[in-house]
Please model this.
Amino acid sequence: MTTLFTSESVSEGHPDKICDAVSDHLLDLFISRDPEARTAIETMATTNRIILAGETSAQCHITPEEIDQTVRDVVRRIGYEQSGFSWKDLQLTNLLHCQSADIARGVDNLGAGDQGIMFGYARREPGFDCCYMPLAIQLSHRILQNLSQARHSGKISGLEPDAKSQVTVEYDRGVPVGISKIVVSTQHQEDLSQPQVRERVLPSIAAALPDGWLPAPENILINPTGRFVIGGPDGDTGLTGRKIIVDTYGGYAPHGGGAFSGKDPTKVDRSAAYLLRWLAKNIVAAGLADQCLLQISYAIGVADPLSFYINTFGTNQADEAKILETLRQMVDLTPAGIIRRLNLRRPVYAPTAAYGHFGRTPADNGSFSWEKLNLVKDLQSCF
Model:
């Protein structure tokens, strides 16, 4: 049976991703000064304006000037110097204020910072097992990463930061066999024609795909409206946390609904989602299942999770109940335990703001610690 599955990604210059980047760079600024800092920073971007809101609590003083400079540096690095949105002259409104004392009480008692449900997921894609992610979202991210690198390096000219991609993978009885359709929309300078935009984008698409998987030209849609000159926050308002499916599994697995960016690790909608991805990935890498979905739930102010669930979709090589019990014995599932296990009280969040929080390569500075395969041997020894 042939099936199709589609996922999308957006570039670091997409309005929502600008906001995620601002929120996460400010989180890193706070946590670099005070590892115990708490933040829930929300950003909005529109024509030549950025508005910050949300709560912070830290044993350090971050000046308004430092916040302003951080925001402008983010926008400059992304590449916005346009008449409708520029790092040089955008207006910044800073409405950040202290965390609610009522919320702080629960975290002070080592409980979860809020109620909620979180999911983690991993799967083997036959032939593409390197990061244990669904293939459509992998390829969607990769196309835009290639396009971004080419733009920043000067290899291509005339393209602007705002871009989106969409990839439809064809499966034959669960095995990926090709690409049905690809869509890329990218902001460009006014003097570029549609053929010129296509010529600049195609190499980034081809380089992202396995050999022989480039679809026929009629199945590669590039700027299908024919023009994308007005873009970024000048064309569409951006908000933190509005791309949660892009951030996770491209729609292949459930999402609990909580966004990640701007939140310190006491917020379990971020840290617990990271832990569950780590557990699911290690379960699959250990050969206990070819596909694994985990869910966990918390109540505000309560440390221990209320529920813990597994679904391996019939691909398990070990009893699901035993896998869950083994995880409970091996891993501290409290917020404090998650933070210690993944070493999350470090300024490691800015790189997560674009191209997904999962399926990435762990870095020397501690970013993407939840992608490490450092539980595999321990799991295998239990089965």
